[in-house]
Amino acid sequence: MKPKVTMIAWNQNDNYVVTAVNNHLLKVWNSSTGQLLHDLVGHADEVFVLETHPFDSRIMLSAGHDGNIFIWDITKGTKTKHYFNMIEGQGHGAVFDCKFSPDGQHFACTDSHGHLLIFGFGCSRPYEKIPDQMFFHTDYRPLIRDSNNYVLDEQTQQAPHLMPPPFLVDVDGNPHPTKYQRLVPGRENCADEHLIPQLGYVATSDGEVVEQVIGQQTVDQDDQSLEPSILDGMIRQLQLQQDQRTGADQESALSGVQNGEGTPRRG
């Protein structure tokens, strides 16, 4: 097999370069001389994640499709820590991405099964309040294209980025309680009655009819004719002000003509 580089990363101070090769090895190079310093052995499948520590130039993280996550000391060419992403009843999950926190005390990974894995020092109690299953209710909604070939949400006929903030649901589409809905950007300060989505019965691809979130506006919002978006309301308000100014200018010009002032000269 001809070796191919699948990923490359510099360490924090740029003294070393680490390359991931498709023969499952990681190679550490001197960035100034190009000299090969270490072969890092441990992965059993291709590696597409190399992440340097935010301030410790010795530390590099690697993760691959074999489900392995390694913390390396690249100056010594040794493993510091190893995690294996085993999923009960499903084997291992390939790790697709990893990032360190700014303080270097934690790192988060995402895998092929839709899991977010958080590793680090300290107590895990702050994370226990988060449900095990969290999806946006719009995650698997179908999209269509309009006559201009722009993408629209099929149900609402809106551009996805202009839709109101989505609701958090579990894997079956059931909405989470209101305290979790405030975790969605844009819903932090909403009243409880505005955090309860409309539910309806939707047919799945298997022909099964299930109850799911069907709308992003609540019944209360529809009854009270509230703006679905603060931004939309501001745009309408600015448009109204502009229309009023235009109307006032036209009235002023008309009254000037009637008083014999004629057409004003250009300055």
UniProtKB/TrEMBL annotation:
<dbReference type="GO" id="GO:0005634">
    <property type="term" value="C:nucleus"/>
</dbReference>
<dbReference type="GO" id="GO:0007010">
    <property type="term" value="P:cytoskeleton organization"/>
</dbReference>
<dbReference type="InterPro" id="IPR019775">
    <property type="entry name" value="WD40_repeat_CS"/>
</dbReference>
<dbReference type="GO" id="GO:0008360">
    <property type="term" value="P:regulation of cell shape"/>
</dbReference>
<protein>
    <submittedName>
        <fullName>BRWD1 protein</fullName>
    </submittedName>
</protein>
<dbReference type="Pfam" id="PF00400">
    <property type="entry name" value="WD40"/>
</dbReference>
<feature type="compositionally biased region" description="Polar residues">
    <location>
        <begin position="241"/>
        <end position="261"/>
    </location>
</feature>
<dbReference type="InterPro" id="IPR052060">
    <property type="entry name" value="Bromo_WD_repeat"/>
</dbReference>
<keyword id="KW-0853">WD repeat</keyword>
<feature type="repeat" description="WD">
    <location>
        <begin position="1"/>
        <end position="39"/>
    </location>
</feature>
<feature type="repeat" description="WD">
    <location>
        <begin position="40"/>
        <end position="82"/>
    </location>
</feature>
<keyword id="KW-0677">Repeat</keyword>
<dbReference type="InterPro" id="IPR036322">
    <property type="entry name" value="WD40_repeat_dom_sf"/>
</dbReference>
<dbReference type="InterPro" id="IPR015943">
    <property type="entry name" value="WD40/YVTN_repeat-like_dom_sf"/>
</dbReference>
<feature type="region of interest" description="Disordered">
    <location>
        <begin position="241"/>
        <end position="267"/>
    </location>
</feature>
<dbReference type="GO" id="GO:0006357">
    <property type="term" value="P:regulation of transcription by RNA polymerase II"/>
</dbReference>
<dbReference type="InterPro" id="IPR001680">
    <property type="entry name" value="WD40_rpt"/>
</dbReference>
